[in-house]
Recover the amino acids of this structure.
């Protein structure tokens, strides 16, 4: 054996086995890749969160500035926490009137939509045959037609019906505005409930309406909540139909009222920001209160037991 | 309690499918009768017509002495146990079982008493506050039965209630059902596709195929005297072996087998010869007339108490599934668990004349005359 061969043999005897070294290196590599993946994932999520939150946070910053402060530095942070703009908005009697009108209109429309859609959805899912498909198609078609196309005919129809009250006009139109979406969602949910539950209840002596009331509605809490919350959010922020259908200041809802508000304070963006944030509060609170049930309904729609 | 009678009942769906065709069946008060057959044979449709969940196209269904064709499901005084249990997921076990009583306006104390009694009978006392999603399959099944029992109905209707359970649980629940029936004595119409359930549970068994009743009788009658080749193959596990045969001047021969059985009517026709797996004996023919054939072992299934052997022979076997006669190549024999059989082994199999079932090759109907055995 040469010297070189002896040295190589001695080195091999004392060094770790080749597969142990490889395994350790592989383990380090896997950890590094995992760390990189996690970092990238959180980075993307952070960017998305900031992108979503930034406009709201910027509006909050603007709402806490004075007008000169805003004019000097529109994008910067306020020098101190200041709620004067919020107080100004809340103490404005017109704003309170708009808020009251929105509460009345949306407060009436949402229960009408929810109640009617749940009844109609169940009937279309379980009680109607081929005739139900025609009605379903009508609802589906109504979702495809842009509201701007039917706005003027809608106004003419409302006038012909003799509905002169602005609030009543909005309640009527808002109630049907969300109906297509609500009925489709409701029907889809009731179709997912096994027919055997209805049959079992009928065999136990339950009437058809009893089945609906005692079995179907309790099971439909999540979709009912979803319909109500989505309808509330959409109708609370609805502006276009309010512009078309309201021909006096008396029935103005908050979104329409705030546009006038902006006009009155043509350059007072801090006050406008405060008004917009306050108007969004009810929807934020509502969604926050029911987000669990809403998320549950969405996850139910994607997984089956 | 009440009897159930099908008087020429036919069910025709809108697309023209005849699910049940001229069904005549009498179920006396207190009987546990099984409707069995392959998927799509009409057994569930027949059950649902009794429940009022399907309309009757022709004929009438009589519960007790009342024609119930136009009676609402809730007014027929029948209780149904569904295949998927149909428990109300938002209600507790107590509320599920109390539901039928509450629908009938029963007072709270009586509801509590009724539910308590049924819960005790089914071992559900500890589960009354749970919801269905917190129960195992067997527990859900018992709750479904409890909901049926609390009403003290005139009849129970059960639509494959054990099909979603594992094999072990199914065996336990079969015993539970039999015990309940002995205890309560309520007329029960039970639908299943499992012929083991049919043979073990029912006082009588009605075999259906393509909407038509094939035969109704006790399990032993169906097993020993099947009226046609379909019943012969459907009842019994492993199924009866069917082979082509010929009646030649009163002598029965199996194609490809040795031996002939005399004593049949003096006619010539093609027939199907049925031999139950347990009727085969290894070795040559014993006393009396018999048939025998050489065979090669293909598959051996050792089940402990018995050994099932699949063997191959050139005699053409027959499978009457779906009304098509398809030549199969293997036969099945059942031996004692101590039998030692190896794959590839050649053996001579024989069966005595008394073990043969003969069916007309065209119609599948059993020949009425049996041979005189020695």
């Amino acid at each position: 054996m040469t010297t070189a061969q002896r040295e190589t043999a001695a080195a091999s005897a004392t060094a770790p086995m080749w597969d142990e070294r490889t395994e350790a290196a592989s383990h380090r590599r896997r950890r590094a890749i995992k760390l990189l993946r996690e970092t990238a994932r959180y980075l993307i999520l952070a960017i998305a969160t900031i992108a979503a939150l930034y406009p709201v946070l910027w509006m909050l910053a603007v709402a806490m500035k004075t007008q000169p402060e805003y004019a000097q530095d529109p994008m910067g942070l306020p020098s101190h926490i200041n709620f004067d703009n919020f107080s100004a908005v809340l103490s404005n009697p017109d704003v309170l009137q708009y808020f009251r009108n929105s509460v009345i209109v949306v407060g009436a429309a949402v229960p009408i939509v929810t109640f009617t859609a749940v009844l109609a959805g169940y009937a279309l899912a379980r009680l109607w045959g081929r005739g139900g498909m025609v009605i379903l198609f009508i609802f589906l078609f109504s979702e495809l037609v842009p509201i701007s196309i039917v706005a003027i005919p809608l106004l003419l129809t409302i006038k012909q019906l003799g509905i002169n009250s602005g609030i009543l006009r909005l309640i009527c139109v808002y109630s049907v505005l969300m109906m297509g979406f609500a009925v489709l969602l409701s029907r889809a949910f009731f179709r997912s409930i096994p027919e055997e539950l209805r049959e079992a209840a009928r065999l136990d002596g339950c009437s058809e309406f009893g089945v609906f009331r005692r079995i179907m509605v309790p099971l439909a809490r999540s979709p009912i909540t979803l319909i109500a919350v989505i309808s509330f959010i959409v109708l609370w922020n609805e502006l276009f139909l309010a512009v078309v259908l309201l021909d006096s200041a008396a029935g103005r809802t908050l979104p329409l009222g705030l546009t006038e508000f902006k006009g009155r304070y043509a350059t007072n963006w801090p006050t406008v920001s405060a008004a917009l944030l306050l108007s969004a509060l009810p929807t934020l609170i509502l969604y926050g209160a029911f987000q669990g049930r809403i998320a549950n309904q969405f996850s139910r729609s994607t997984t089956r037991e | 309690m009440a009897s159930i009678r099908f008087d020429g009942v036919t069910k025709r769906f809108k697309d023209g499918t005849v699910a049940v065709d001229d069904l005549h069946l009498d179920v006396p008060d207190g009987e546990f009768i099984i409707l069995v057959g392959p998927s799509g044979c009409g057994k569930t449709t027949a059950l649902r017509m009794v429940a009022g969940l399907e309309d009757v196209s022709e004929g009438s269904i009589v519960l007790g002495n009342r024609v119930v064709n136009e009676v609402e499901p809730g007014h027929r005084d029948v209780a149904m146990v569904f295949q998927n249990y149909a428990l109300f997921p938002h209600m507790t076990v107590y509320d599920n079982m109390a539901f039928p009583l509450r629908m009938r306006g029963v007072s709270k104390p009586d509801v509590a008493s009724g539910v308590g009694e049924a819960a005790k009978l089914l071992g559900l006392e500890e589960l009354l506050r749970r919801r269905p999603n917190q129960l195992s399959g067997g527990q859900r099944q018992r709750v479904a039965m409890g909901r049926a029992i609390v009403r003290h109905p005139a009849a129970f209707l059960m639509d494959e209630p054990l099909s979603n359970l594992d094999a072990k649980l199914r065996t336990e629940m079969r015993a539970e059902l039999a015990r309940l029936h002995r205890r309560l004595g309520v007329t029960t119409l039970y639908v299943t596709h499992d012929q083991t359930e049919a043979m073990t549970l029912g006082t009588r068994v009605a075999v259906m195929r393509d909407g038509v009743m094939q035969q109704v009788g006790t399990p032993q009658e169906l097993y020993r005297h099947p009226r046609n080749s379909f019943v012969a193959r459907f009842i019994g596990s492993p199924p009866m072996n069917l082979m082509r045969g010929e009646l030649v001047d009163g002598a029965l021969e199996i194609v490809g087998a040795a031996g002939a059985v005399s004593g049949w009517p003096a006619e010539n026709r093609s027939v199907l010869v049925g031999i139950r797996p347990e009727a085969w004996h290894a070795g040559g023919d014993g006393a009396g007339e018999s048939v025998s054939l050489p065979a090669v072992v293909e598959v051996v299934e050792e089940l402990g108490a018995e050994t099932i052997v699949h063997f191959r022979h050139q005699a053409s076997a027959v499978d009457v599934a779906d009304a098509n006669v398809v030549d199969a190549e293997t036969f099945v024999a059942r031996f004692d668990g101590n039998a030692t059989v190896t794959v590839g082994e050649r053996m001579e199999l024989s069966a005595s004349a008394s073990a043969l079932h003969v069916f007309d090759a065209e119609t599948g109907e059993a020949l009425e005359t049996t041979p005189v055995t020695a």
In short: Residues 229-360 of chain B form a domain with the OB fold (Dihydrolipoamide Acetyltransferase, E2P) fold (CATH 2.40.50.140). The interface with chain A takes residues 51-53, 72-76, 78-80, 82, 84, 86, 88-90, 99-100, 103-104, 147, 151 of chain B (CB under 8 Å). The longest strand of chain B covers residues 306-319. The CA atoms of residues 248 and 268 of chain B lie 5 Å apart.
